[in-house]
């Protein structure tokens, strides 16, 4: 069973009625309900909890961390970012959603500004599967439509993805690399674009399937920890 922790700021839902109407118990609870029936053990954590809910114990019992953030990026303590970063480098998977592209942890792992174009215009988004053989695309159609979403557009200031799985098109003409993966240390990172807080995106069955696939892909590989530093020749090691 894959141990998943869904992290959410849980700020918009408390401050803005239009968000609370869509996610009355928080985006994290909607995600937990949406993915929890698929053989995952799902817990949640939020910004206002001690250590933002990401204690050493919680992270040690997390195979994949799902991250949604927006208005509280600057409120995430640097020490917690370092803690999460260390766990990713050691093998924990990270799935970053929507405006989490500007989170401290994502920017630290990418090493770039991670900025982009955006527009809140209640537009149609068409998501194309451009790597149909990728595990994250399993069971996903060639393309699917979200009738109402926030626009994100290129240029997206990220390092070239190790793998590009999805590309989005918007009514205004913009395109966006909306499903990207990277390998960092022993860990894997998946960024998936949809999920503006005023739209019911995280109730969409195809979106939830992508997130479930991303969690499975990002789970720890179980490979042995690499040995680094001054190293004996393999023949010397074998003789001992």
UniProtKB/TrEMBL annotation:
A Pfam family this chain is assigned to: ThuA
Lineage top rank: taxon: Bacteria
Alphabetized InterPro entries for the sequence: Class_I_gatase-like, ThuA-like, Trehalose_catabolism_ThuA_prok
Domain ThuA-like positions: 3-218
Transmembrane segments: none
Name the record gives this protein: Trehalose utilization protein ThuA
Naturally occurring in which organism (per UniProt): Paenibacillus glycinis
């Amino acid at each position: 069973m894959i141990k998943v922790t869904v992290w959410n700021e849980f700020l918009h839902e408390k401050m803005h009625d239009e968000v609370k109407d869509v996610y009355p118990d928080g985006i994290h609870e909607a995600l937990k309900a949406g993915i929890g029936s698929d053989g995952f053990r799902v817990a949640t954590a939020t910004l206002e909890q001690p250590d933002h809910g990401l204690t050493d114990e919680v992270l040690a019992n997390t195979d994949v961390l799902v991250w949604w953030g927006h208005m509280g990026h600057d409120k995430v303590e640097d020490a917690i970012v370092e803690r999460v970063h260390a766990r990713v480098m050691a093998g924990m998977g990270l799935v970053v959603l929507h405006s989490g592209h500007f989170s401290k942890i994502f920017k630290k792992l990418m090493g770039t500004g991670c900025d982009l174009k955006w527009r809140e215009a209640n537009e149609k988004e068409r998501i194309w599967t451009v790597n149909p053989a990728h595990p994250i695309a399993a069971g996903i159609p060639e393309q699917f439509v979200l009738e109402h979403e926030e626009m994100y557009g290129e240029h997206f200031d990220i390092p070239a993805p190790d793998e590009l799985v999805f590309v989005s098109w918007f009514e205004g003409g913009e395109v966006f690399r909306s499903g990207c993966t990277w390998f960092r240390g022993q860990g894997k990172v998946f960024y998936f674009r949809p999920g503006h807080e005023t739209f019911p995106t995280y109730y969409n069955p195809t979106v939830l399937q992508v997130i479930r696939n991303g969690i499975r892909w990002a789970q720890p590989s179980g490979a042995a920890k690499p040995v680094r530093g001054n190293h004996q020749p393999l023949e010397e090691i074998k003789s001992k």
